[in-house]
Amino acid sequence: MDRRPGRGVAELIAEGQRSFSFEFFPPRDEAGETQLWKAIQDLEPFEPTFVSVTYGAGGSNRDTTIRVTSRIARETSMTPVAHLTCVGHTRAELEAILDSYLAAGVHHVMALRGDPEEGPRAAWTPTPGGLDYATELVEMAHARGEFRIGVAAFPEGHPSAESLDADADVLVAKARAGAEFAVTQMFFRAEDYFGLVERVRDRGVDIPILPGIMPILNLAAIRRQGELIGTDVPADVVARISAKDGDPVAMRAEGITLAAELCADLLAGGAPGLHFYTLNRSKATLEIFQALQITV
Ligand code: FAD
User: Fold this and answer.
1) In the chain, what are the domains?
2) Active site residues
3) Ligand 1: which of 24, 61, 83, 133 to mutate, judged by most atoms within 8 Å of the beta carbon?
């Protein structure tokens, strides 16, 4: 029986609504908490389809995901999506966290495997009594009948996937296990996104795939992160930002312009919406919205 309240992300998209969503991470201290809530308040007027909160590598940071998503459910008009990973958890622990999400009024979960504690390039070691792949977490959440489930997608392929086709097979398996929508890793070429969508559609699966947008505000940091997670920063993008070297304001502006161009290409090509990696700040997202002439 379907016991999920309200309408889900996939239903909203199927109705033809363009989806906008914002991702946050659990703040580490009081100053971070203040910054997060300012970003949430700044972005709420855009009536996002959902806002998501990532799940950290361990410790109190994980409880913060529950606390922040339940506060969003309680105090705002927005739909929170709580991320959850298999890292370091037994099945019983994962079930208990799913219980706590439901108790907090959180009915959307982003079901992820997570990365090994040594980083995204390290070999995956499953936790004894835990789960191996995100698909199993999708199955676990789906079996409850009370969750709407999102999953991760990789326009350039997950770094440990054998091929782009094998990577698409994994996303298809997650959709068949009960995932309703997918959000992509950051990427900088629209054709990588459309290639992934095509591979998934060729396999007969129509799961909405929301492109994840990360504006380049610090080129060196994004290139480092890209190397770890398998996202290439194309030479023309590097060249356009590097051309403003020595002028931090112009470099930032170019990063925003590039992100807005990517967003425009994605929407024009039929992407069902945009998912913004906000890093708990609203400024860059608001600047991109302004460039795209998206208003409240
Ligand atoms: P899976 O889908 O399980 O895939 C992991 C690897 O296993 C892939 O290489 C896949 O090809 C392979 N694989 C999967 N199933 C099989 C199978 N049956 N047989 C063989 N190989 C298989 N990390 C966090 O720690 N916290 C977060 O909150 C978080 N949020 C994220 C949000 C988004 C939108 C994205 C894109 C990533 C996020 N991540 C987060 C990072 C994510 O956890 C890592 O990218 C992780 O390495 C893969 O997670 P997954 O859910 O895609 O795993």
Assistant:
1) 9-289 (3.20.20.220)
2) 23
3) 133
Ligand 1 pocket test, candidate residues 94, 170, 200, most atoms within 8 A of CB: 170
Q: pLDDT digit of tens for each residue in the chain (296 aa)? A: 566 666 788 888 888 788 999 999 999 999 999 999 999 999 999 999 999 999 987 666 888 999 999 999 999 999 999 999 999 999 999 999 999 999 999 999 999 999 988 888 889 989 999 999 999 999 999 999 999 999 999 999 999 999 999 999 999 999 999 999 999 999 999 999 999 999 999 999 999 999 999 999 999 999 999 999 999 999 999 999 999 999 999 999 999 999 999 999 999 999 999 999 999 999 999 999 999 998 88
Q: Is the CB of 134 under 6 A from ligand 1?
A: yes
pTM for the whole structure: 0.97
As a whole number of angstroms, the distance between CA 255 and CA 233 comes to: 12
Rounded to whole angstroms, what are the CA distances from 112 to 82, 126, 181, 182, 203?
Answer: 11, 13, 13, 11, 22
Report the separation in Å between the CA atom of 243 and the middle of ligand 1, taken as the mean of its atom positions. 35
Cβ 183 under 6 angstroms from ligand 1? yes
CA torsion, points 228, 233, 234, 235, in degrees to nearest 10?
-100
